[in-house]
Structure formats: structure tokens, C-alpha cells
Amino acid sequence: MKIFRTITLSALLLFTLVACAHDGKVAVGAINTDELLAQYADFSQAYRQVELSEQELAQVKRWPDKLEVTTYFGTWCHDSQREVPKMLKILALRPELSSQLIALDINKSEPEGRASDAGIAFTPTFVITLDGRELGRIVERPETSLVADISAFLAG
User: Fold this and answer.
1) What is the rounded average pLDDT of the residues 97-106?
2) Which is nearest to 146 in space by CA: 99, 76, 77, 96?
3) Which pLDDT tens digit goes with each residue over 18-44?
4) Domains of the chain with bracketed CATH
5) Residues 65, 21: Cα–Cα separation, whole Å
6) Which range is the signal sequence, renumbered to this chain (predicted)?
């Protein structure tokens, strides 16, 4: 009976994850913003709805040019669908900042092994670095907001 329950719960979880994938498409590996927004309507719609306050705009403009943001996310992940468009809108304000979008499968992996190397366990995970040194990570959702959390990393 215990095995039947385990199999049933596993099947239900798998079905839920697959049902959350956009048209069964799951991006895996490096992807750019234009591709993501063109191919995944949930991300595109959320991106169009993002609005930053004047205070947030001012904070982002003060970030150093050498700041780097690596985003590990899943196109199937509701947290990613909520947070990644916000980060993309922020990064669009500062195109000189270095950024990478790395899409992961439901096992939180991708062919080049970058997620494994970075110890990624949850999506999205935003890894913030400056001059090759990791300042901090935002995992699944920010403490305050993406802008406030990154600004706090920079101040700390």
C-alpha cells in the first residue's frame, strides 16, 4: 500500500510539473531575453506588467558597472515566471551590466552543469557577483525586493 501511495504521489507531482510547462516546452541551457519573451507568453506578459518606482530606478542607476547577475530559472516554474521578468526589466535599465539567463529542467540541471557547479537547488536563483566575487543570492523570492536586496548586497 505504501508503494502504491508513493507511485501515485510521484505521478501526481510529475503531472503537475508537466502541466505547468508552457505547451510542453521547457527551455534548457543558455537563453537570451528576447528568446525567452518571444517563446514564453507567461514571462512576456509579466515583463510588460513590471513597473519600477522612482526610488528603485535611482538605486539601479547607482549600481557599479561591473555588477554581474546570473539567473538560474525554470520556464516551468511559477516562482520564475513571477521573479525573472522583474529582473529582466531591472537589467534592461542597465544594459552595460553583465547577465546570463540559464534555464533548467525540472531536475534543476542543464547540459553544461553550471547549475550543479553553482549549487543551485531552487528556482529561480539569482547569483550576484562583483569583480568575480559572489556578493549574495536571491533564492525563489527576494526578502524585500530584487532592487533592495541587490542594493543591500552592495552595501554589505
Assistant:
1) 97
2) 99
3) 444 445 689 999 999 999 999 999 999
4) 2-155 (3.40.30.10)
5) 35
6) 1-21
Q: Are 79 and 20 in contact (CB under 8 A)?
A: no
Which grid coordinates are listed for 55?
526610488
CA dist., res. 37 & res. 128, Å (int): 22
Q: Which helix (H) or strand (E) holds 56?
A: helix 54-62
Angle between helices 54-62 and 78-93 (to 10 degrees): 70
Of the candidates 136, 134, 35, 140, which has an alpha carbon nearest to the alpha carbon of residue 86? Answer: 140
Residue 122, Cβ density class (10 Å: 0-12 exposed, 13-18 middle, ≥19 buried) = middle
